[in-house]
Amino acid sequence: MGQVANAVYRAHLGPGWRAPAPARLAASMANTTVLVTGASSGIGEATARLLAAAGAEMLLVARRQDRLQALAAEIEAAGGRARALPCDLSDPVAVGELVDRLCTAPVAVDVVVSNAGKSIKRSLSASAGRFHDITRTNAVNYLGPIQLLMGLLPGMRQRRKGHVVNVSSVSAAIPFPLFSAYSGSKAGFEAWLRSIGPEIRADEVFTTSILFPLVHTDMSRSNYGRLPGLTPTAAAEVIAGALVRRPRLLCPWWARIADPVLTNAQGPFDRAAARMLGRR
């Protein structure tokens, strides 16, 4: 999908999905430290490049140390500021050590782009004896991000400055068959963020959840490469726009319509989906 096609696709998601003006983004990122999880590839990598170019100091978090160090070096070579902070979000000890390191650093975290994610496409029958699918997905998509934020939010609230961007999926609003582990973990984190939102908003800390449709990353390309979707760069521009405009929620208009329709017609939807899926 080319740049023009991506712009058209993004425009059809709704007006809030547009890219910000470069000058407004630069003004928003001035004197700002942004932590991006899942920064070694895909949406996270594209977001790190875009925000660094706009003037933000980037903290890059992911498991793959070599990829993070290479990205940090590229950003600095281009005149930006970036640090690689390798961490496996599914490891509570590692996340705790990262929080300690960040809370004692001379530069405070102003923005967290919670992007790291794990997706599993597997039927309930195929998941028999694989409860670790649930625990691993929840560790990356739910528990790890919450542990990280619980360590960083007190400082944001004390400074009265902060923004958390949840890079989520439309499956958090419309659970799709075969993605029960992924949809459940994404919906859980979104519910947690919605619950704490009013508490931290009182201290000038904002939250934004972006329920992305298909984005062509390494995680999705093998199954859905031929379907229309956004590139990681286009998705990064949506995140940048959210940092400028600070909406509470970005959800495609068609998902907003489908959610109440499916909620009130869950029985017919289940029967139709069952016929389509057959026995799995």
Automatic annotation (TrEMBL):
SUPFAM superfamilies: NAD(P)-binding Rossmann-fold domains. The keyword Oxidoreductase applies. Keywords: Oxidoreductase. It comes from the Bacteria. CDD domains: SDR_c. PANTHER family: DEHYDROGENASE/REDUCTASE SDR FAMILY MEMBER 7B, DEHYDROGENASE_REDUCTASE SDR FAMILY MEMBER 7B. Belongs to the short-chain dehydrogenases/reductases (SDR) family. This is Short-subunit dehydrogenase. It comes from Microlunatus panaciterrae.
